[in-house]
Design brief:
CATH architecture of the largest domain: 3-Layer(aba) Sandwich
Distance between the termini: 26 Å
Structural class: alpha/beta
CATH class of the largest domain: Alpha Beta
Mean pLDDT: 94
Number of helices: 14
Order of helices and strands: EHHEHEHEHEEHEHEHHEEEEHEHEHEHH
Length: about 400
């Protein structure tokens, strides 16, 4: 399933109108200011390259979940202002996605200039992959560049449908994502450690099953680990569990007992009677959880087991927090494992989400090999699913040299 797609450096862009799908779905504060610009900064190599080549750059992104309606607090204006600061140049902003206003703005857009369209998910046709919207977007440009890996697992008009009407290549961020993820799935280094957390077993089943035949160690944490522990016969009190996934969890544990992969579950956990910030807590073995209490983070003995596996790894893949990260002090397990991953002598690939926030908070981002800008897209890739936003990009011909 190795992906080898043309990227923006493989095609002529000088003076062309280039529509770039970016993932600027960033958090805003109550005043409408960008809190975390990581995703915006990740797009800069592609944008800098296009602008240096004199392309006229048109940006399209979504922000939040407006569900096909105009939501003023989800307009792209704050994002355009932050991008302008990062680029050191003016970013024009349209209040429309397509139509006369956009065409007028394009008419006045000079080479080496940037135009940002309004939140594409204000249009209900976007998430339906409507061909009319796709054609309208395509009509704005000469070339389509997809640099939004975080949306690559979605078949939307601005990620997939548009490629029926325009030549389509990867941006430099997308190319980097494909390079690291190709290696992690198709040619991983061993010993391999796969760390999976979060709430839902369903999100990770395919990934676990993919790696079960491998000679690797799979570390499970977060609420999803509670489901596996209950499936293994432990009484989990009031812990968050997916009752409808117990049988699936049992089958996976059975497959693991007969396969090459070693699955490590928590052996002790932090428990609370009521989950809230700074709530009273205890540490108990997973066989000691009393009725009425809930497991909310991995415990110190589990951390030592996890750290031992991590220290021996040559490659580490990680998606999902290992506890109730948003309720300190139950971010402890995630942060301690983040420190261990950063200190390991291994290639480390982090699959988006809360783990990225933990690394940023601890100032450890520079000590991991690759931080992906996609969470769900990473999981789908590791599982082996086809990502619609990648499948439609032009394939590289082996003899093809960059332009």
């Amino acid at each position: 399933m190795k992906l080898d797609k043309l990227n923006v450096k493989d095609v002529p862009v000088q003076g062309k109108k280039v529509l770039v799908r970016v993932d600027f779905n960033v958090p805003l504060d109550e005043g409408g200011r960008v809190i975390d610009d990581t995703k915006i900064r990740a797009s800069l190599p592609t944008l800098d390259y296009l602008l240096a080549k004199g392309a006229r750059v048109i940006l399209v992104s979504h922000l939040g979940r407006p569900k096909g309606k105009v939501v003023d607090k989800l307009r792209m204006d704050p994002v355009a202002r932050r991008l302008a600061q990062l680029l050191g140049r003016k970013v024009e902003k349209c209040d429309s996605i397509t139509g006369p206003e956009v065409k007028d703005a394009l008419h006045n857009l000079s080479p080496g200039a940037v135009l940002m369209l309004e939140n594409v998910r204000f249009d209900p046709r976007e998430e339906k992959n409507d061909p009319v919207l796709a054609a309208e977007l395509a009509g704005l440009a000469d070339l389509f560049v997809n640099d939004a890996f975080g949306t690559a697992h979605r078949a939307h008009a601005s990620t997939s449908g548009i490629t029926a009407y325009l030549p389509a290549v990867a941006g430099l961020l997308m190319e980097k994502e494909m390079r690291y993820l190709n290696k992690s799935r198709e040619n991983p280094l061993f010993p391999l450690v796969v760390i999976l957390g979060g709430k839902k077993v369903a999100d990770k089943i395919g990934v676990i099953r993919h790696f079960l035949p491998c000679d690797c160690t799979i570390l499970l944490g977060g609420a999803m680990a509670n489901t596996f522990l209950k499936a293994a016969g432990f009484s989990m009190g009031n812990s968050l569990c997916e009752e409808d996934k117990l049988e699936v969890a049992r089958r996976i544990l059975d497959e693991a007992s007969r396969g090459k992969a070693k699955v490590l579950l928590p052996v002790d956990v932090f428990i609370v009677e009521e989950l809230r910030r700074d709530s009273p807590h205890q540490v108990k073995g997973v066989d000691e959880i009393p009725a009425g209490w809930s497991a909310v983070d991995i415990g110190p003995r589990t951390l030592q087991n996890f750290k031992k596996a991590i220290a021996a790894a040559r490659m580490i893949l990680w998606n999902g927090p290992l506890g109730a990260y948003e309720f300190p002090p139950f971010h402890w397990g995630t942060e301690m494992v983040a420190r261990a991953v950063a200190a390991a002598n291994a290639e480390s690939i982090i699959g988006g989400g809360d783990i990225v926030a933990a690394l940023e908070k601890l100032d450890l981002s520079g000590q991991v090999t690759h931080i992906s800008t996609g969470g769900g897209a990473v999981l789908d890739f590791w599982e082996g699913k086809e990502l619609p936003g990648l499948a439609v990009l032009q394939n590289r011909v082996k003899s093809q040299a960059p332009v």
